[in-house]
Design brief:
The chain is built from 7 helices and 9 strands.
């Protein structure tokens, strides 16, 4: 059986400091044996982990589209930010990837996909995140599950981890799979385990983002790397 956390960020994201090595160790310690590594507008970390062969990873990217965030899974090439939701979906499909919609009804996230865009692409959505551990309100997750059920969309869950203590807070346990289509099949019968993270984890990722921005300013002013 595979225990998959479908939404994880590494140090390749602007608001995470976790190295691939730290992610792998923490996941193994918590019984997670597969993740979708979905950095913000970046694919390099996921491809690096995939190439290492040290841990099973689904190479993904959380793309900031003009209409909000969409995750592409099983990607081979980075997708540029700023495209429309429809254009981003087309790019994902061109790579034979899966379209995964993260935190679609999270009230406090400005980056969530706009409802108008969600309606336009709903027939092309492969997986909807029906539980995100970072959502403040359980009702946001329940609304995502209701939408997925109403529209016959395959469901998954993600911790949205940015710091190690979050890893594995939720996952889906599935049978083995060998392709994107296989994954969709086994997900339909998967067992979802869900837990909300503490609100304090947001301070952790905010601190990392501020630190990284300050480091950029320091490097720009001094020329030191």
């Amino acid at each position: 059986m595979w225990r998959i956390d479908f939404h994880v960020h590494s140090c390749y994201s602007k608001d995470s400091a976790m190295s691939n090595e730290e992610i792998i160790k923490s996941c193994k310690d918590r019984g997670i044996n597969c993740i979708a590594l979905t950095d913000h507008d970046e694919l390099a970390g996921a491809l690096e982990m995939e190439k290492s062969g040290l841990f099973r990873v689904i190479a993904g990217e959380e793309v900031k589209t003009a209409d909000g965030e969409i995750i592409g899974l099983f990607l081979k090439e980075k997708i540029r930010a700023g495209l429309s939701a429809e254009e981003t979906v087309k790019e994902i499909k061109t790579q034979d990837g899966l379209v995964y919609i993260p935190h679609p009804f999270s009230k406090w996230r400005r980056t969530k996909l706009k409802l108008s865009a969600l309606e336009k692409i709903k027939n092309d959505i492969d997986i909807m995140e029906v539980f995100n551990s970072r959502n403040f309100f359980r009702t946001d997750n329940l609304k995502a599950e209701e939408y997925a059920l109403e529209n016959n969309i395959t469901m998954a869950v993600g911790s949205d981890s940015h710091i190690t203590c979050e890893l594995g807070s939720c996952y889906v346990e599935v049978e083995d799979f060998s392709s994107p289509s296989d994954l969709l099949t086994v997900l339909k019968h998967g067992h979802r385990v869900t837990n909300l993270s503490s609100a304090f984890v947001h301070f952790g990722s905010a601190f990392v983002r501020i630190r990284k921005n300050l480091e950029k300013v320091f490097i720009k002013k001094t020329g030191n790397v």
